[in-house]
């Protein structure tokens, strides 16, 4: 019953999310989406679409709802709704700004955040190191099974 009611009420949130994106001109950060999730919960409760003010768990879920109800459908088909197109442009622009920002480039340059492909010449070496880290636990398991 819970999932069915949720399935019915969340598509009605589509126009509200579009308006919030346009008003807030949000960024990619989940803190911004947390605020929108809070107001979306208030909206759902006020419009009696949901029985409490806790329908959307957090900003990540709200972001996923926007992607599934607004962004992805707009990529599949052209919409004549100007507000929806504007919200999609703002959403895409926020990602573009994020990838061009200095905060993101600092993360990419840091040695701690390199991919395994950048640290090891061969995948076999990477796998061998992972196995060696787990070797003591595996040896204890083997001893336990043999005794």
Summarize the topology:
Elements: H1 2-9, H2 14-24, H3 30-46, H4 59-76, H5 82-100, H6 102-109, H7 116-119, H8 123-146
Structure overview:
The structure is a single chain. The chain is an all-alpha fold. The chain has two domains: 2-112, no CATH class; 114-146, no CATH class. 74% of the residues lie in helices and 0% in strands. It has eight helices and no strands. α2 packs across α3. The chain starts with a helix and ends with a helix. The model has no long low-confidence stretch (mean pLDDT 77). This is LANO_0D00210g1_1. Pfam families: DUP. It comes from Lachancea nothofagi CBS 11611. InterPro entries: DUP/COS.
Main features:
single chain, 147 residues, mainly alpha, 2 domains, elongated, LANO_0D00210g1_1, DUP/COS
- Rounded to an integer, what's the Rg over CA atoms? 23 Å
H and E order: HHHHHHHH
How many helices in DSSP terms? 8
How confident is the prediction overall: mean pLDDT?
A: 77
- The termini sit apart by 51 Å
Q: Helical percent range?
A: over 70%
- Annotation, overall tally of beta strands: 0
Overall tally of domains: 2
Protein name: LANO_0D00210g1_1
InterPro entries: DUP/COS
């Amino acid at each position: 019953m819970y999932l069915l009611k949720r399935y019915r009420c969340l598509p009605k949130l589509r126009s509200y999310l579009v308006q919030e994106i346009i008003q807030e001109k949000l960024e990619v950060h989940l803190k911004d989406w947390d605020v929108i999730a809070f107001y979306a919960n208030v909206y759902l409760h006020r419009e009696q679409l949901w029985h409490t003010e806790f329908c959307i768990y957090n900003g990540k879920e709200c972001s996923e709802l926007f992607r599934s109800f607004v962004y992805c459908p707009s990529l599949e088909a052209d919409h004549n709704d100007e507000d929806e197109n504007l919200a999609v442009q703002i959403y895409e622009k926020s990602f573009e700004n994020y990838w061009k920002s200095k905060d993101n480039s600092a993360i990419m340059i840091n040695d701690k955040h390199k991919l395994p492909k950048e640290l090891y010449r061969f995948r076999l070496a990477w796998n061998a190191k992972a196995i060696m880290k787990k070797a003591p636990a595996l040896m204890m398991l083997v001893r336990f099974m043999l005794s």
